Batch of 3 targets.
Target 1
Amino acid sequence: VGSVSSVPLSRQVQGTGGSSAVSKCSAAARGYIQDRFLRLLAGRRRRRAPLIHRGYYIRARAVDHCVQDFLLKTQSHPRTQVLSLGAGFDSLYFRLKDMGLLHHTVVYEVDFPNVVCQKATLIKRMEELSALVGDTAGEGLGAITFSGEDYKLLGVDLSELSDLEKALEEAGLDNEIPTLFIAEVVLTYMENSRSDALIQWAAERFPRACFLLYEQVHPEDPFGHVMLQHFSQLNSALHSLTQYPDCEAQQRRFLGRGWTECSVMDMNEFFTCCIPEDEQRRVQALEPFDEYEEWHLKCSHYFVLTASKGMEPSWTPLLPSVTVPHHVGPVGMAGSVPAAVCARLSGVPGLRRYGHCSVLIKPDVILTTGGFGEEDGQHCRLRNYHVLSKHAGSWKAGCVTKTRPDKRCERLYHTVSCVSDSLALVVGGRTSPSSAGLGMLWLKFSETYNASDPDDIAVELVNLQPAAERATLRWRHSTTEVTFKGEQYLFVYGGRSALEPVLGDWYFLHTQELSNTLIAVEGPVPESRHSHSACSWEGGVLIAGGLGAAEQPLGSVFLLREHEHGFRWQAVETYPPLIPRYSHTAHVHEGKLLLVGGVWFHASSVPGITVIDLMTGLCLDYVINVEHLEWPLMLHNHSSVFLPNEKELLVIGGGGNCFSFGTHLNPEPVSLNLSSILTSH
């Protein structure tokens, strides 16, 4: 994050710059970015989480991609210049110089005087840095803090345009040669009138110019709320978002202030379209990783914008190298579904969790197990079970606190299948993303079990044959009941493991013996996926969505149905096509498939409820009306249970680690009344 002025804010904004340098340094240490200069400039060293590494990788990659494209397109010009606004402790100049890309380019960096002084001191003190700059002269003249032949550091307030212009003139900036302006999370900290004036000034004063902007977007959705709250708590409000909340508004902003060409991409699109596939695979394999939802949400809330004027040939670094079909324009919503808090369940701490599983063990009784959440004021993997039961129209919660907590119950992204009135089967799950996966557990409870008197639940490890064991060493999979020749089986499909980032295999486990049974399956095999949904329907299974091999959301729906000698896969066509998504939940009701929440790449809205008519293929999206909720409802990593008689959907838990903005857990279960959408078509 760069830095800009406004006296009371300056210290907080500078803090974001220091934190950013430390995060980039950590990403470089793990091999995400090749940059040996960051460690010299960042000062303190701290190892960040894989999610933070990916976030700073995509940011560094986008900036480098555009800067190098500018240098390449202008190499026939005798002189060019780069002006980095709010550069902080960035290493851009040293990287470019080291790569031999600055033959005829001068780099100017502008930041707060005290930041620039610190950076100048660091450079002079370190031989590795000062050797690249070479001879220095003309320092201490006005705002010029450091001056090499092709590198100038200026200590000036970006929001004071006349001071900035004067300092740049003194430092030798030439208005007539091709100039690239870089603003990497900088302008948003300024009042909009001042940042708009700077954008317009750059277009008016420089006849041949390019502008590179990297910033936040979409403050209106749940992730955006958490992001805004984080920056407000840092006393570093994001001003741009009030006036320019989406990519289209940012594009209009530049085109309306003198720039003739402007392209913009959010970071999901940039990663998919502008980074070669082998590089994508390299980055995805660097560390054990399992926070796909937060990674894609982070990427949909940041964008890279390039604007230009007077450039020959034109500067278009954001031309995709591959074209990926993505949903353009707003999602057409067929209506809305009201959301209400379950009043009796508020304040039950163990229901604030994600990566858990909830299952209906008898009519109106729900068992919730596992996940990551809040216990005794701490965030941890949860061992305790929660039971929800409905009496006289209202929900009641009970917690099963075991006298000797069973570590085997600590797991995320597992499945639970109720196989009788007193028996449920836990399949798979993980502790950490580098763990080998967990086996199966029987959960035994009384037939009269409910939340008023949640007795202890007996836990027994299932001893499996080796052939069946492979089915359990996975997470983010699905386990669904199917029927073949009158016998009951559990169909375990997809997911991922510590060795395989995505699985496409399946197993039929006989419900009684839990032995692996080989049953013939014909038809077009669905592509490998995890974080999909699976529902029992007419003795078979409906698979929808999921995250595929290249960490791309899938929009396919498949039906596995009983055939003469086994099962057959068949694709379910939807009209209009289902918007690709994953991390949703699903239910079937009277020939309709209901998809609940999830994550998609379509940034203008978040997934609500999608209803697919399995007879006609008609696919309708409904928005969830959250006006009666006092907090952002994050519908990923959640669980949901459908009560067909009341046409009520109960959403339990959900949320996750929102990049560096903190962990958000939905504070209480939410009831969605689906009666209007299930009777209307």
Note: Residues 1-9 have pLDDT under 50 and may be disordered.
Target 2
Amino acid sequence: MFRLEKPAGQQKPGRSGGLPKMASVGDFNVLSSSIPATKVELSVSCRNLLDRDTFSKSDPICVLYTQAIGNKEWREFGRTEVIDNTLNPDFVRKFIMDYFFEERENLRFDFYDVDSKSPNLSKHDFLGQMFCTLGEIVGSQGSRLEKPIVGIPGKKCGTVIVTAEELGCCRDSVLMQFCANKLDKKDFFGKSDPFLVFHRSNEDGSFTICHKTEVVKNTLNPVWQAFKISVRALCNGDYDRTIKVEVYDWDRDGSHDFIGEFTTSYRELSRGQSQFNVYEVINPKKKGKKKKYVNSGTVTLLSFLIETEVSFLDYIKGGTQINFTVAIDFTASNGNPSQPTSLHYMNPYQLNAYGMALRAVGEIIQDYDSDKMFPALGFGARLPPDGRVSHEFALNGNPQNPYCHGIDGVMEAYYRSLKSVQLYGPTNFAPVINHVARYAASVKDGSQYFVLLIITDGVISDMAQTKESIVNASKLPMSIIIVGVGPAEFDAMEELDGDVVRISSRGRFAERDIVQFVPFRDYIDRSGNHVLSMARLAKDVLAEIPEQFLSYMRVRGIKPSPAPPPYTPPIHVLQTQI
């Protein structure tokens, strides 16, 4: 029997996000990055593997590795079962992974012909490997990626097919309502002011706060308003995970009095209103002290309704393409590109800030664009031969076709432009925003979504026109990312971001928030590790894109297209050894 060192789909150590493991009642913040955007299940099949066995066919296994961001070290994530005597395995055991749009997750699939029961892979014959990113799989048509297996020089090693399926529980939300009866009286002059606090349990036995109800004033029999919470936030998709509910009496000074608590689970709650969902509220201290103590009241579930929401991945799987355009600031304030002090300095040994921002964002977005052709624009330069100033020129020198092939093509065109144009000014954003908006305005059916990355060093010169362009663009399928490089003050950019105050122009407000601004200096790793700086930047600037994308689709009532029919591999008679 082949023993697995680690079951497939076992999760990586928890990603600590916004919240500490134990949050006090007062400091609850809406959960953000602490919960994965979703979970996907990867299925692996191979065709025409190498035959390493003399008297029979190979007995293949697939081993999946993920790569750490900082030191690039590969770590084993999981293994499939071994399938006897086949060169065309369809592995049954799946890999379940956390999926974050804003992170680049490098994957490596290694294939071996298993010759003994040893879990040590060096004891088995290597059949080849395949490298890709999780985004590449998800972004492929129908979320199905087919690639050649490589790694053995001079040999055809066959092909691998990896299919990603979003796990359903991740996009369910529940609408619940609770009431309570005969809660303990905690206030000297009036009755209690009760509220509930929900916690989900973690793998290590600690609890994380995930919802707090409103306070109902002066009653021992409160009825709280119905509230909506994602199943992910409530129990991380594990229906049997403990959910702890605490009942408090609200006090103005923040020292809320503990009334009692009870535990339940998603599975219990899903039974809906019934005798199973009436809970005794227990105060352990009182229970320990008083022999006659029964409870501190009861809490009853009044209703439980499951709602399934369409997700970002539903649209991607249905064929929606993300079109990526980059616009680079060529104004004189960047400094002479031949000087090391310039933000555009072409250092032969490392990327400048523009190059880092471009690669960080572009390498993730390119997985969702099937033709990998990206328009690359510049603004604020004097162009040859006549020295006219342009705020919307093609980096590749071809205004009729500003497309570059892949992020490498964009980088090449950027470096070429630096040698041919003269940095000038002023810093005008409106022309490049309007350029992308013209394309976005022609495709409003949900089949395409446009992301414009503007990288700039400074203070914007056409604020009024830019605001107007953003307000107009907020009705279109597009988002704008602005990365500020260099030491300038970027106060004006914060205004464009619209997170605090919705952006407006001449009395018209933006229909939705489509701009995300970040200063690159906030992400620079102190130890000089540029890989970490780029990963941090990408995580922050791209995290809002799926929600901005969904807000456009929701406002327009656009549903995802049906995904292409799933891949059904040819049927083989297989002997499976688990």
Note: The chain has twelve helices and 30 strands.
Target 3
Amino acid sequence: SQGNSTNYPTSDHQVVCDAEDSLMCSIHLNSSRTFSVLVTVNISNVMASTVLLRIPARPVKPSPPVILSHIQTVEAELILSWKEPSDFSGNLLRYEVRYSSQNTPPYWQVVSALEKLNVSLDLEPLLKYTIQVRCTTQSQSPLWSDWSKPYYIYLHNVSYIPQEVVARPGENVTVYCVLNGHSANASMAMWSLNRMVPLDPSLYHPVNQRVSQITFMASKTGMYDLLRCTQEWSIPYSRINVEGGFINITCVTNGDIDTMNCRWENEEWAILKFRSKSAEMSCDEMEERERDGEDVGEVGPECSPNKYKEKVCTFHPLKMNCYKVWLELPSHLGLIRCKPVYVSPINHVKPNPPTNVTPVSLSSGILRVTWNPPLLPTEGLQCQFRYHTLSVIEKWKFEESVRVPWAEVEIPDMCQVYVVQVRCKHTSGIGYWSEWSDSIHSTPQGSRAPERGPDFWRMRQDDPHRSQSNITLLFESFPANWNSYCVDGFIVQHQASNGSVLRRQIDMVSSYSFEWNQELHFVTVEAYNSLGSSVNNVNMTLEKEPKRKKEGLKRAFQQSLREGNLLSAQH
């Protein structure tokens, strides 16, 4: 009977048993549906008392345990845990655990766990273990479940407790290092930070033979710290995620004020996600309202640079609102965020460099520099120029910034060439300096062309085989800076006997050589600048040598010609 009704149905099956003193009859029952049976017996038309037969439950095979996991304790103990099967009816279960480090064929070691949902295992490091659990009920005729799905454990030489944790900047964190080899000695542990920085031994000590403990202050900068307790670098480490750590995020608005680039500096290997929110209010108001717990602003799109070295994200088009920017790092414990930065684009403008830079050296000993400042920002700009002489590379002299598009500085030599660059910045001092303009060379502003050319001598070397001579002009020391003009160089003019003229422009050198074919030839040397060349110059006449001993060196400046002399100088 499966119900509570007293009108039990009577079986149509009649059993007849013959015996003298006692009898035994067998009755077939469907135990899958029937839990108890009332039996009535007639003996020679005499009704015996009703007999109640209780049918014992058929043994049920449970499902295997699920969700296997393991932890290590600070006592260097490894605990395997699992969950009981979902169809468990409430009877007490007992468990068996088997594990093996061999694949084919596996050599199983079996451990009983009775009614507990965990067991301690003694595993060796650097071996991959396959682990399974099964269960059965506490009945007289138990049936074991199938073995659970395989669970794998591989122990490194070192384990850390916890493997990962979240801390605030400057907060103390305690980490345990478990040395999994039975012959290990925790007193030999040497803790280091971020793969290379040894930590003070006073921060750590052994807990027992195989466990070392350190209490460490989480960094105030960066997204996480990595701790390890051995000299050899291995994959296991303890990661201290820093929630709210400082990362230097720098945002720069371009000179056209339509794009803002935000860059950051961090040493972590992980690729961080750059996130932002913007709100139509001042940054002070946005920060204060968020501090009070209010959710303000619109979340911007996520920016994830594809490469480790790419640490920049761009806002375009740009809103003139307040931007809140921060970095995120996914972890097993949730998202880790750095300290946010609030940025107003107009306060972080890097103007375009100035154009049309014109440096001029005045005859009064003043270097005057003019330029065209960039158009933005419209609130005004201050500009600064730097300079150095062309002969001294990259030894810059800086002048004070001005709010007008020109500046002057005294210089010792108006004829020197100066290299000049200019940059600009917002008048209030906020934002950034522009890049320096292109280097421009100064030009001296002379009042007139040079008055006279240089004095010189000549030196002659004859080649008897070719009827040619090598002529070298030796110039008298000639200053580049005169009272009212500068000299940029010399012009050597050659005039042949047929009237052809060749002019060569040279620097202010001490000598100049050329080949002469020993025919009548006239040479004139002029001094020149940007306004013209001198007209009062020294002239030299070269002609064939007379039959007398050749003179080696003569002064260029002569008033008259002596017989046989090859050098004629005239003003």
Note: Helices lie at 283-291.
